[in-house]
Every structure is written in C-alpha cells, then in structure tokens.
Amino acid sequence: MRLAIAGGSPVRSTFLPYARQSIDEADIEAVNDVLRSDWLTTGPKVEEFEAAFAATVGAEHAVAISSGTAGLHAAAFAAGLGPGHEAVTTPMTFAATANAVLYQGARPVFADVRPDTLNIDPELVEAAITAQTRAILPVDFTGQPADLDEIASLAESHGLIVIEDAAHALGATYHDKPIGSLSHMSVFSTHPAKHITSAEGGVVTTNDPDLARKLRTFRNHGITTSARDRHEKATWLYEMVLLGYNYRLTDVQCALGISQLAKLPTWLMRRRAIAARYSSAISEMPELEGPVVAPNTEPAWHLYTIRLRLERLRAGRTEIFEALRAENIGVNVLYIPVPWHPYYQDLGFRRGNWPEAEGAYERMLSLPMFPAMTEADIDSVLEALAKVIAAYRR
Ligand SMILES: *Cc1c(COP(=O)(O)O)cnc(C)c1O
Question: Which of 40, 189, 289, 290 could form a disulfide linkage to 167, CB 3.0–4.6 angstroms apart?
Fold first, then answer.
C-alpha cells in the first residue's frame, strides 16, 4: 500500500491527536454554577478541589496553583533553592522542570536516564550530588514512576528535598502507594493534555504542613491571608511576608477540576486498556520496542512511547514521524533533551553528556493516548504503524 506521504490515501481521513481532553455536560454545568456564584476566585471551590485531590493521591495537603509550571516554581521556592545551589534533574522532560530551578537562581544539573524506563538513574543522581546540591527533581516520565525509594534514600542521606514532577503520573502507583504521597513535594499539571484538566492548572501535594504553608503563601503574592479570609473576618489588614506571585487557580477552574477528578478511575482504566492493546501489537513488530514497566509499579500512561530499532529500518525517526503524520496519526516526540535547547546551550550545557537520553530521543515516538480514543482509533494507529514500518523495513 502506497504511503500517504508518497501520494497514497491515508489510513485515517481525520487527524487523531496525541492527547485530548474529555469534557462532558457535568463539567460544563459545574463551571456554569461557579459563574453564577459570588466567588470566581479565592472562593470555596479551591479548597474543595484541594481536598478531593489530596484524597485521590493520599497526601495530607494539596495546593491548587495556576499551572504545573507555577507548581514547580513554588516547590523550588519552598525547598529553599537559591543562588549558589544546585538541583539534580533529568534531561528527558519538558523544559519547565529545569526552568523552575533557574527561576530561583539555582543551577540545574542533568543526570542521565536509565536505558529501560528513561527515568533518571539513581546512580547518576548520586554521582551528581555536590556540597551545593539542595534538591532532586525526578520526573515520572510517561507516567511510569521513577525510582522513588532510591531517590528518597539519597535525599535522606544528603539532606536534600525531593520535588517529584508528577505531571504525567496522576493515578500511578509505586509499591502499591499512590504517586503524590511519596516525595517531599509532588507536582501535577491539569493542562488539557494531562489526566484531568482545569484548562490551565496544577496541584502540589505534600505531607509536610510547613511546606504546604509556604506553597500557599507563595501562590498568593507572599500574603498570609486570602481575600475570603479578610471578607469573613471583616478586616482590610494583611501582611506580605515573602516575595510571592499571583499563581492562584480560579474557582471556575477548580470546579472543572473537581468534576474531572470524579472520572479519573474510569479514564485510568481506559488508558491501561489502550496501552495493553498497543503493547500486544508492538511485541509482534521486531522493528519497534514498547515501553518498559518497572516491577512493583502501575504507570498512569500519560504517554505511550515507543522506540524504533533503527538498525532494522531504512529511515530515521523524523521520516517515520512524517510518514505517520501523513497517515493522520498524531504521533509526537517527547522530549527534546532539555540541555539541547538554545537557552540551555547559552548557559554552557553541551550535547553528548547524556548518551541514554540523547540516544533515546533520536529513535522515540509517542503514540496517541487519551481516554476518549475508540477501538477504531487504536486500530488505525496500529494499521498505520504496520503500513509505515513495512515500507521502511530493511
Ligand atoms: C505538562 C508538564 C509540565 C508543566 O505543566 P503546565 O501545567 O503545562 O505548566 C511540567 N513537567 C512536565 C513533565 C509536564 O509534562
């Protein structure tokens, strides 16, 4: 069959994105109700969303925030990161993880990933720790939990704070415990591409009341009381005690988040079913490697990332990507190693220091993965993969 990129007809007539939100009438009603209420922001929906989120991930405290990126910034602040400090993180992530370290004037240090899960390698984290290190920022890449026990024990023995970037991992478990309850702070995103959405948004979870207080104050300009506190106490007085930001999540968004959270269990089941179908098909395709699931973990499957066995193919990742896109399959490449970005190059980072992450980047593709995908959508992804691989097989 002629590839669409060579003028043939595409496997699908409509484009299948790599991620997409699911919004139903209950979500729309929840948002409308808030729009008719007195509090569009700093109102009761914020605490309601925080309580529901904390319960979902088994954490003592959840702090709703305007984005996952703002959550990472707030966590870097609460961890006490500042000029002269270092924080160890992974090159295989979205730039926001490392940017949070830069926001605080500290320096990110990239430790390479494990070849199997592409999560940060604890041995390389240990090797990267210096007298200046204050924090470790592991990422649960694709929703596969990182080696959190090993990272926690490194943090314990070196007196470091763990800020887990759990943007991919809402609903994942590690040794039967939910992600969000295990690190000093865990940061989630509620961007529409993620497991649940509040349009933009994020949540930081922690079991430490001091960290929770710092996060809340940082989110609110560094002011210790909210507008609603002052309304209820009939006072104008407030104190700004640290240099914070306006990183609040509105009640409109929190209402959407609450409504979405109720559907998380069903959506996780659907993501797992899609992953199972992909994995069984890919195990029959010798040109492809499926994702590795670490023992004692249950991933949340934000992404389903395959790697090409380039030695069995006559084309590289870019050509395969373009051929699949022409078939209307919204494959994506996540992620460009963070130190490769021009901004990081200008900071002095040089290519070639992270061979596992850099090598994986050259042969990785993420397949469409979102709960509203139908069985026919999955069929079309697998059909297009088989078609494109057959055309480029060596
Ligand atoms: C989505 C994401 C973020 C940022 O979240 P936003 O809510 O978009 O700011 C951070 N880290 C990772 C790994 C992400 O995937």
Answer: 189
User: Which residues' Cβ are closer than 6 Å to ligand 1?
Assistant: 67-69, 93-94, 96-97, 139, 165, 167-168, 189, 191, 202
- How many C-beta atoms lie closer than 10 Å to residue 119's C-beta? 23
pLDDT band at 1 (very low <50, low <70, confident <90, very high): confident
Rg for the chain, CA atoms, rounded: 22
Whole-angstrom distance, CA of residue 67 vs CA of residue 74:
10
pTM of the model: 0.98
- Distance from the alpha carbon of residue 389 to the mean position of ligand 1, in angstroms: 31
Question: Is pLDDT above 90 for 225?
Answer: no
Place of tokens 């309304």: 231
What DSSP assignment string belongs to 69-131?
HHHHHHHHHHTT--TT-EEEE-SSS-HHHHHHHHHTT-EEEEPPBPTTT-SB-HHHHHHH--T
